[in-house]
Amino acid sequence: MSVAHKVALVTGAAQGIGRGLSEILLKHGAKVLLTDVNQAAGDKTLAELTAKYDQSRVAFVQCDITKQEQLETAFATAKSQLGGIDIVVNNAGIGDEGDRWENTVDVNLKGTVKATKMAIDNLRKDRGGKGGVIVNMASMAGLNPNPCGPVYCATKAAIIMFSQCWGMNPDVTGNGVRINILAPAFVDTDLVKQQLQKGKDVIRPDIAAMMVERVGIMPVEQVAEALLELVTDESKHNAVLKISASTGKSYQ
Ligand SMILES: NC(=O)C1=CN([C@@H]2O[C@H](COP(=O)(O)OP(=O)(O)OC[C@H]3O[C@@H](n4cnc5c(N)ncnc54)[C@H](O)[C@@H]3O)[C@@H](O)[C@H]2O)C=CC1
Ligand SMILES: CCCCCC(=O)/C=C/[C@H]1C=CC(=O)[C@@H]1CCCCCCC(=O)O
């Protein structure tokens, strides 16, 4: 499936991986609704992307994925402003541990569940949609245990299982909806930089640093290419695409 002229909604799109995913979709001719909880960062990213791409193809709406009504507004905006929805990338995520661990469950798990259910409802052909593809952002940390971020890892493991369960549902597959999962190892974004620099949320920063040393760290663009594969290759359904600087891409 070509992404040209398709409409994508990306969560957590103001910076980091979400911004990179949005940009590769724009480069290949899609229309993109950037969504993010951070209004100021979203406005800045929108201004930068509209300077490079046709401004009728990109828009931003503030959306906290933990808030059902803000998700509803975002999906409605994609339809009214960009003409429909074909691709949903549930990328937004955080890594709080310690006293703030419940934020990580709220955003990574509950927020992704809310957004996935809404995406399925909007894409299903029997509910007025055109079919399409959902990609949920997990992590290698949801597949391989480590002692650094137990709540983060648990939420990412849950995203994989939740997504694959929906992907086995004939009401989803029978109505033109594909669901795939992206599971990167370390990517060069603020999430990793902040955690490693301040040791803020990492329970054993020494071990985290050793893991980064062993596994390496990827540029955002490498993850964006992997997303494009999951979106465009129609044979990919219920796939988990693992990607790491040291071992490259593999499906599980
Ligand atoms: N950086 C890495 O090494 C890896 C990151 N990931 C995942 O990729 C995704 C993106 O991470 P990064 O770009 O690295 O992080 P980042 O911190 O650079 O960007 C995350 C974006 O999500 C937004 N966000 C946070 N909470 C939100 C909410 N409640 N609603 C909407 N937007 C919200 C932030 O404002 C920010 O713009 C996350 O799900 C993360 O868990 C997965 C594997 C590796
Ligand atoms: C969960 C590991 C914590 C390490 C600290 C850190 O910097 C966090 C990085 C995470 C940010 C988002 C992620 O998904 C990153 C973890 C990636 C783990 C890679 C594991 C690689 C492997 O086991 O092969």
From TrEMBL:
Identification of the protein by name = 15-hydroxyprostaglandin dehydrogenase [NAD(+)]
Q: Which reaction does it catalyse?
A: resolvin D2 + NAD(+) = 7-oxoresolvin D2 + NADH + H(+); resolvin D1 + NAD(+) = 17-oxoresolvin D1 + NADH + H(+); prostaglandin E2 + NAD(+) = 15-oxoprostaglandin E2 + NADH + H(+); resolvin D1 + NAD(+) = 8-oxoresolvin D1 + NADH + H(+)
Q: Which domain of life is it from?
A: Eukaryota
| Pfam families found in the cross-reference section | adh_short
EC number(s): the record gives 1.1.1.141, 1.1.1.232
Q: Which GO terms describe its molecular function?
A: 15-hydroxyicosatetraenoate dehydrogenase activity; 15-hydroxyprostaglandin dehydrogenase (NAD+) activity
Enzyme class, one word?
oxidoreductase
Q: What is the protein's species of origin? A: Elysia crispata (lettuce slug)
Write down the PROSITE patterns for this protein, in alphabetical order: ADH_SHORT
